[in-house]
Sequence to fold (255 residues):
Amino acid sequence: MNPTYDFSEQVALVTGAASGMGLATARAFADSGAAVVLADRDPDAVQTAAEEITGRGGRATGVVCDVTDEQQVEAAVRRAVTEYGRLDMAFNNAGIQVPPADAADETADSFDRVNAVNLRGVWAAMKHELRQMREQGSGAIVNCSSLGGLVGLPERAAYHASKHGVIGLTRSAAVEYAPRGIRINAVCPGVIDTPMVADMVENQAEAMAGILKEQPIGRLGRADEIAAAVLWLCSPGAGFVTATALPVDGGFTAH
Fold:
């Protein structure tokens, strides 16, 4: 059983919110009383997700947002503030994978694409969230890194570069903003049962089998388990926690 939180009168923004860990976290925020802005590049899926939350009594707004476009990110943050009056919490979750590649054969396009979403997208979201939160003098941000932000694995150099970069962004911004009442952390999911991982299992079966063999807990993680970690990091229970990169990985990074 997950802890329960009272986030009533608070506002959360989640990127990559139409499926997987983002949707699970948006649901969890709403179930805890927060108004939630769901941002995703898929217009139909994000509206469906927002309607599902409002249909069960939550407060939710779906916004089309491609995090590689800083103007769209700024507009999503502005929508949250315009509609609900403030911004208290954010989960910068939008991310992509790229096919595994020998480091000597990785294309510049592949490197640029994964970093545009996973690193620059987090940077842009955090930047505009902080502009609002520093006016308020309060807030909590969780950036989505990965077990790939903590370790190295063969044929994952570009993806891992993006996820290591998220931790660097998180730690530096957290030190800067801690005196201003804003906490910034990263969550580092392991192999989680999401649509992206399902695609990897199907198309990268051999590589994924090796990764799963290294999972001490013996199973895939669940999206709601990542949501539980994010909510804790945003809650008063984590009031003395900032600049950390929290593994939620079934023990993978202990190897």
User: Anything to note?
Assistant: The chain has a mean pLDDT of 94. The chain has one domain: 11-192+222-246. Helices lie at 20-31, 43-55, 70-84, 108-136, 157-177, 195-203, 205-213, 223-234.
